[in-house]
């Protein structure tokens, strides 16, 4: 007697992976998976139409978000390229002009740094100028006395006088109401060159080099003390 054949519901042949490289499910892979699901569904328990529609709507939304993200990435890349061109063009236009750079790097020697600026809090206080080497070791300490609130100029050339030619850093320690805090410095430079690189545009002033993004203001005149 021949044994009865038992029906098998929901059985599906083994198929190749439906995911793309990186584990992402693409549109074609999703449709293949959906067709396989419908082909091998249990006739006694078919897929719910509303559930299927919800799955399609969900996939469509995800696909639209992915496409939107790709477009935004392309736009961002285009904007970065445009900003790079603008920065490069602007940097070339700075040659021969004075610029204020938000940095504490200065140079001693011929064509060295002449001045810097700090913004003193409105309350005023006592300032001390420190000259350090690039490792942070203090070389000179110069009392600045009482400093009224507002923008104040520092005679960097005098502070660096007599030091070997090279690069140094300056710092202003500001004491007010019993507390001592550092003040942010801006260094005045005469732009004498421009260096372009994959990381962006840089301006040079003698032996010093600064990213163009550190420039806070530009002046056409000569240095003033």
Q: Average the pLDDT over all residues and give the rounded result.
A: 78
Give the helix/strand class: alpha+beta
Oligomeric grouping of the chains: single chain
Q: Classify the beta-strand content into a percent band.
A: 35-45%
Record field, number of beta strands? 13
Q: Which sequence of SSEs, written as H and E, runs from N to C? A: HHEEEEEEHEEEEEEE
- Quick one: biggest sheet? 5 strands, antiparallel
N-to-C span:
114 Å
Low-confidence stretches: 5-20
Evaluate the radius of gyration. 34 Å
Count of runs of 4 or more consecutive helical residues: 3
Account of the protein in words:
The protein has 225 residues and is an alpha+beta fold. The strands form 3 sheets. A 5-stranded antiparallel β-sheet has the order 6-3-9-1-13. Strands 2, 4, 5, 7 and 8 form a 5-stranded antiparallel β-sheet that branches. A hairpin with a 5-residue loop joins strand 4 and strand 5. The chain starts with 26 loop residues before the first helix and ends in a 6-residue tail after the last strand.
Relevant terms:
elongated; 225 residues; alpha+beta; single chain; five-stranded antiparallel beta sheet; 3 helices
Question: How do the helices and strands line up, and which of them pair or pack?
Answer:
Blueprint: H1 27-39, H2 49-92, E1 98-101, E2 105-108, E3 115-120, E4 125-132, E5 138-147, E6 150-155, H3 156-160, E7 166-176, E8 179-183, E9 185-190, E10 193-197, E11 200-205, E12 208-211, E13 215-219
Antiparallel strand pairs: 1-9, 1-13, 2-7, 3-6, 3-9, 4-5, 4-7, 7-8, 10-11, 11-12
